[in-house]
Specification:
Blueprint (H helix, E strand, L loop, with lengths): L1 H12 L6 H20 L10 H13 L9 H24 L9 E3 L10 E3 H14 L1 H12 L4 H8 L3 H20 L1
Antiparallel strand pairs: 1-2
Helix pairs in contact: 1-2, 2-3, 3-4, 4-6, 5-6, 5-8, 6-8, 7-8
Length: about 180
Amino acid sequence: MPEDITELLLAWNDGNKDVLDRLVPLVTDELHKLASIYLADESAAKTLQPTALINELYVKLVDRQQVSWTSRSHFFGFAATTMRRILVDYARARRTEKRGGDRVPVTLESAGLISEQNIDVLDLDRALEALGQLDPRLVRVVELRYFAGLTLDEAAEILGVGSATVTRDWRAARVFLLHQLNS
């Protein structure tokens, strides 16, 4: 199946808009699983459902400019980054006074970043911004591993580095984020 997705993405790159009808059903289940994981422990899950997150993602994917897909992993990496931005925008909107100002917690337990602790999406975003000042590739590794659920090998392929590099980056990013989120 990954080969089918890659072939369809390449056809989409070539301007064939008809492939979207075949591509969407192939990626929807996996995107829905990712969205469900991100929203599983979220207090705002009653107002932001996985389907709504995916719908917003699809709008951004269709409107995307100058992205040439190279593989299934590249697509899901892009989707993960976009989902992260959607969740951060949603958290910012919910925090405003006219929307109630609630914080939106996210669990990072499944990513191995923090054990059994809810983290505010905006706190996570600030920690990732700080990490990006030190090493932008570490942020990409977190996005690919946590937000896209990619393996070390898939992340290495997208980043154009070896698996050992991604493993080191993943460890370093987790230590940095643990420190940032607990201070």
